[in-house]
Design brief:
The protein is of the alpha+beta class. It has a single domain, classed as Ribosomal Protein S5, domain 2. 31% of the residues lie in helices and 21% in strands. The chain has five helices and four strands; from the N terminus they run E-E-E-H-H-H-E-H-H. It has a four-stranded mixed beta sheet with strand order 1-2-4-3. Strand 1 and strand 2 form a beta hairpin. The longest helix has 19 residues.
Length: 133
């Protein structure tokens, strides 16, 4: 057997507590997320616009195969971590995609995190109920 000489581009992406590893190679648009298809992994159809948006911005739909592993967080954090990683991998693969992905905001890591719970409060900012009497 001979190994394929197609280069594989690797990048990582993160959002909240989710971390994704993206392996991109030239292909026909086949995606696997944690050894499942994206339709099986992300149950809602709303997510697919966001998942494939880096390819739509760069006009490279069905030109790349992606093998994705993602850990931590919830579905939204995982989805945005995948989008961040795909964008970074596309820039590594082809530097000319950087301006369009940068202007769409896909290369910037969203640094917002959950605010920690404070002592004496119910949640981060929710206080106890005020009693007038």
């Amino acid at each position: 057997m001979t190994k394929s000489t197609t280069p594989v581009y690797y990048a990582g992406g993160s959002r909240k507590t989710s971390h994704a590893r993206i392996f991109l190679k030239a292909g026909t648009g086949k995606f696997t997320v944690n050894k499942k298809s994206p339709e099986d992994y992300f149950k809602s159809k709303i997510y697919f616009n966001s998942l494939f948006s880096p390819f739509q911005v760069t006009k490279t739909e069905n030109q790349w195969d992606a093998y994705i592993t993602v850990k931590g967080g919830g579905s939204t954090g995982q989805l945005e971590a995948i989008r961040h990683g795909i964008s970074r991998a596309l820039v590594i693969a082809e530097e000319s995609h950087k301006p369009s992905l940068k202007s769409a905001g896909f290369l910037t890591r969203d640094s917002r995190m959950v605010e920690r719970k404070k002592y004496g409060l119910h949640k981060a900012r929710k206080s106890t109920q005020f009693s007038k009497r």
